[in-house]
Write a structure and sequence with these properties.
Blueprint: H1 3-9, H2 23-33, E1 45-51, H3 52-67, H4 88-102, H5 110-118, E2 128-135, H6 140-159, E3 163-167, H7 174-181, E4 187-196, H8 212-215
Antiparallel strand pairs: 1-2, 2-4, 3-4
Helix pairs in contact: 1-6, 2-6, 3-7
Bound molecules: flavin mononucleotide.
Keywords: Flavoprotein, FMN, Oxidoreductase
Domain Nitroreductase: 7-197
GO molecular function: oxidoreductase activity
């Protein structure tokens, strides 16, 4: 698979088969992803890879919080600005519509939407998940490093026939994750990443993108 194919075939998969991912495959991907760039080559990320009983324990504990109506821990950073301006608001809403339409969930069915969101904390049935942490003393540049690292992992997973879903949902319950993985206080959970084989029975959600002219300006 070349890089264009890996980029084109990567999508946020929200239904996995549960088939275990061999440890050797995860090792290959995570070892190759260490080549991701970072400002000053400081490699500010720290990942915890959970599978088997470790992941089952985390999803059980988080699932209990979700089922109890627990809204989550105090946020350590805002997920979005309080007011999401145009055109970002429209793009976000369009992605949500696509997602719920693929699941057959009506716009007004808030309970079904909440159930779909709750699947985040079951990792959508994935057999493995990476929890990506950043030292909380770092700033904006190191956050961009984390994005590059995670995209590198996601593209390498495609080369192995695997899919993934990056999840900002996991920091909502960051204390439960930290307790499960044993993260030291100096680290902050930035993103979860569910990893596994896509369930072929689940309808894929195909998101669109803004035209190139809206997001890139050529000069010269
Ligand atoms: C940093 C980040 C966090 C995300 N968090 C979630 C999440 O918590 N739950 C989820 O279902 N999708 C999540 N997504 C997936 C996005 O919704 C998805 O990437 C976007 O709609 C574009 O769709 P595509 O990835 O299928 O191309 C996240 C993506 C990124 C990059």
């Amino acid at each position: 698979m070349d890089v264009y194919e890996a980029v084109a075939s990567r999508r946020a998969v929200r239904a996995f088969t549960g088939e275990p991912v061999p440890r050797a495959t995860l090792d290959r991907v995570l070892a190759a992803a260490t080549r991701a760039p970072s400002g000053g080559n400081i490699q500010p990320w720290h990942g915890y890879l959970l599978s088997g009983s470790a992941l089952a324990d985390l999803t059980r504990r988080t699932g209990a919080r979700v089922a109890a109506g627990d809204p989550g821990d105090e946020p350590e950073f805002p997920q979005y600005p309080a007011e999401l301006p145009a055109p970002y608001r429209e793009r976000r809403s369009a992605a949500g519509e696509r997602r719920y339409a693929a699941l057959g969930i009506a716009r007004a069915d808030a309970a079904a939407r909440a159930r779909a969101v709750a699947r985040n904390w079951d990792c959508f049935g994935a057999p493995a998940a990476l929890f990506c942490y950043l030292d909380r003393r770092f700033g904006a540049t190191q956050w961009t490093d984390i994005g590059m690292y995670l995209q590198t992992v996601m593209l390498l997973l495609r080369a192995e026939g695997l899919h993934s879903c990056p999840q900002k949902a996991w920091p909502v319950y960051h204390r439960t994750v930290a307790a499960s993985v044993g993260a030291p206080d100096r680290l902050m959970l930035v993103c979860g990443l569910s990893i596994g084989y896509a369930d072929p029975a689940a309808a894929p959600v195909v998101t669109d993108r803004a035209p190139l002219a809206e997001t890139v300006t050529y000069l010269g």
